[in-house]
Amino acid sequence: MDEKISIIPLGGTPDVTKNMYVYEYKNEILLVDCGLGFADPSLLGVELLIPDISYLKTSGKKIAGMAITHGHEDHMGGLPYILPELPDFPIYATPLTAEFANEKLKEFGVSKRVQKVNFDGGGIKIGNFSITFIRITHSVPDTSNIFIKTPVGNFFHASDFKFDFSPYDGRKTEVEKITKASNEGILCLLSDSLRAETVGKTPSESKISHALESEMEKCTGKFLVTTYSSNIARLNQIINAARKFNRKVCFVGRSVIKNKTIAENLGYMKIEKGMEVFVDELKRYKDSNLVLIVAGSQGQENSALYRMVNDDFKEIKITSKDTIVFSSDPIPGNEISINALLDSIAKKGAKAVHSDVSPDFHVSGHGATEDLILMMNLTHPKKVFPIGGNYRHLIAYKNLAKKQGFSDKDIIVTENGQEVIFTKDDSYFGKKLSLKNVYVDEISGEEVESFVIRDRQRLAKDGVVIVMCEIDSTNGQLLENPNIIVRGMSPQEIKDVSRHLIKEIRNTLSKKKQKVSDWWYVRKSIGQVCEKYIFRNLRKRPLVLPVVIEV
Fold first, then answer.
1. Does the pTM of the predicted model rise above 0.70?
2. Which residues of 31-56 are buried (b: 16+ CB within 10 A; e: fewer)?
3. What is the CATH number of domain 205-357?
4. Nearest 5°: phi and psi at 38?
5. Which CATH class is domain 462-550?
């Protein structure tokens, strides 16, 4: 009987975020990535989503280890929430990725640490698996694709990547390592698919420099740039442009300061003494001598940029001479908050440069069709498995792969929770896990149950009705009219609801004049009669909270 290995996506397929993949051979598991997702605004009070790891806790399989491909939140941001739920196992990542991850773990008080692996090292043995980190170009340094050797066959896990042959930091894709892996035979290529709809090649990061310099030269006030704080190459381009025009650089916002410090410590960034200034020193310099690298590219409330634009940052005021460059694209779902921020900037009279105005200040870290085809041609896999995209991206990748000669049976399009079983020559679907959405409170790190979300949504949509009743325990009747508190309805609705509910409650209780033996039933009856009346007359379903005082 053929030996088997399976892959189960717990996040990332079809999904741009929450990336987490289970490679399972016999009784051992290798995990690749541990990301988080960002909640939809409708999930009130919830900022984050993480993969459902119920299977890892109940399967009885040993987790041999984990590999992290790179330092973006959607690939490593779930670590502080998930690691405390699992037994100890080794975790590996390249130096910058490991430092980002370890800083996050320290911040959350999690004692586990990620081990640093250099690109020039060999394969790492993890139980029955062997993994090799291969440098690839993306929008954060030290991004890797992972060559995974197993007793059944070899896999090439190419999460986020593009082929940038003139990267700004000079760290090129290790094409020779990919070719070497291909020569050992690759059963399946798991490939980034996010830009599979985009024809052509993703531009080089280096093209940003000219646009930054051109805009900075024209600016007569402060020059502010906001971007993803992990995009170290972009930060370096901003610093070099500032150097060219003799401007001081100030980092503003917790995330950019933290990542700048990590990058400096590892040698990925260099700022000569006297060039960097701090927020409390800004008043010593003319605005025209300053470049501010600012957190808040997604319009987040309470971010540094948001506070500046809304006059809530004591040391920094936005003026009509300032230029604010958004060197990033909106993450889906953040368009409303970014547009609101752009409107606020316009009210200040400052100049805002963003993707709708000019495409020259941001390039994607994900490969377009030519990049994806090149990866297929370099790896020569038997099968391809698009990941890291929404369903339309997976289908676009499938169509692209078919044009490269892959048959339908050799293109694996699946979804989170679906096991894909591989033999040395074939693949087929296995069990389907029932995965739930796991919502997390960003501050406490605690899971927020789905019923809590539902209650919040009901409160937001239809309001709340609190019914306080004093009831005589000897006969089950009201001692006086209930006190009804209504929130989230119009004044007239509140007046009508309060008057009619008193009548409905009295009628309900009058049908059972007897000693109360079951107070839970009384509360339930009051709640139900209120809910039915409100829905019948107002077509609303508020959260109804009956409070019964036993007398």
1. yes
2. bbbbbbbbbeeebeebebbbbbbebb
3. 3.40.50.10710
4. -110, 130
5. alpha beta
- The number of C-alpha atoms within 13 Å of 195 and in the hemisphere containing its C-beta is 22
Q: Are 37 and 11 in contact (CB under 8 A)?
A: yes
Residue type, 280: D
**Beta strands 223-226 and 323-326: pairing type?**
parallel
| Dist. CA 90–CA 109, nearest whole Å | 18
Q: Strand pairing partners for 411?
A: 384
Top-level class of domain 5-201+364-447? alpha beta
How far from chain centre, in Å, is Cα 124?
28
Q: What is the pLDDT of residues 300-350, one digit of tens each?
A: 888 999 999 999 999 999 999 999 999 998 876 688 889 999 999 999 999
Residue 1: predicted pLDDT = 62
The DSSP symbol for 465 reads E
Q: Where are the domains of the chain?
A: 5-201+364-447, 205-357, 462-550
Count of CA atoms in the C-beta half-sphere (13 A) of 524: 4
| Max intra-chain CA distance, the chain | 88
* Residue 46 Cα to chain centre, angstroms: 12
For residue 396, what is the enclosing H or E element?
helix 391-403
- What is the 3-state secondary structure of 129-185? EEEEEEECECCCCCCEEEEEECCCCEEEEECCCECCCCCCCCCCCCHHHHHHHHHCC
Place of tokens 């993707």: 355
- pLDDT tens figures, 213-243: 999 999 999 999 999 999 999 999 999 999 9
